[in-house]
Amino acid sequence: MSHDGSVIQATHVGKRFGKKTVLENISLEVRPAETFGLLGPSGSGKTTLVKLLTGIDTATSGEVRVFGTLMPKLGMLRRIGYMAQSDALYTELSALENLEFFAALYGMKGPRRKIRIQEVMEVVALEEELHKRVDQYSGGMKRRLSLAIALLHEPPLLVLDEPTVGIDPLLRQSIWKELRALNTKGTTILMTTHVMDEAEKCDRLGMIRDGALLAVDTPSALTLQAGKKTIEEAFIYYGGGES
Ligand SMILES: Nc1ncnc2c1ncn2[C@@H]1O[C@H](COP(=O)(O)OP(=O)(O)OP(=O)(O)O)[C@@H](O)[C@H]1O
């Protein structure tokens, strides 16, 4: 935990690709055991920000701390479960082989490894598909397997980039239940989303537009501040769809 008790602390973070500024002067704090959502139109910089917060990429300016440690820091990956937008899976291997690969990477051994693989595959309702090759999985199944991998080593921080894209509503509901249970046990979750009912479930939301963080608050406070009735209307308002 950092000196001020935050799990993620971004201070005046900026990111440029060549001459193009993608993120500008972002300061935000993610608190212990909350679910923090990043909401913004396509291309607003959510994935880029997530990559800086997990230490996968480096900021051009400003600093990021996770659990008080200055990022990027390779060792921190053990404390972060990251689910990228494009699935990082070995498609010619089975789901089990993928899970075993990542478990080994995280130093998980013996019976715990076996039990944990079973548990995470139950969370994403893929326990019957454990031995299937990933190239025979549907897009939604691959997303679910990626989520299972992010959960595998029980990291205290989960960073999920559009975790429920391509996942049907019923399963999405049960995944949310699991994420809530993880919050209760102390896990902090940062996610990007486009799905409004999902954004509404976050404890707090950060609204991003054109690489700038426009507002951070609870979904209901953001809706109220925008003078709107729903988070969807507030999203359009903050997203610049309306002046
Ligand atoms: N490696 C890169 N080089 C150059 N430009 C990049 C690079 N990565 C991202 N960008 C640009 O940064 C901007 C933000 O992209 P980013 O993927 O972070 O947006 P996003 O909000 O996650 O979008 P989406 O919701 O569609 O995934 C885009 O204009 C994108 O083209």
Automatic annotation (TrEMBL):
Please indicate which superkingdom the organism of origin belongs to: Bacteria
Alphabetized GO MF terms = ATP binding; ATP hydrolysis activity
Q: Which UniProt keywords apply?
A: ATP-binding, Nucleotide-binding
Ranges where the ABC transporter domain occurs? 8-235
UniProt protein name: ABC-2 type transport system ATP-binding protein
Q: Which organism is it from?
A: Fontibacillus phaseoli
List the lineage, top down. Answer: Bacteria, Bacillati, Bacillota, Bacilli, Bacillales
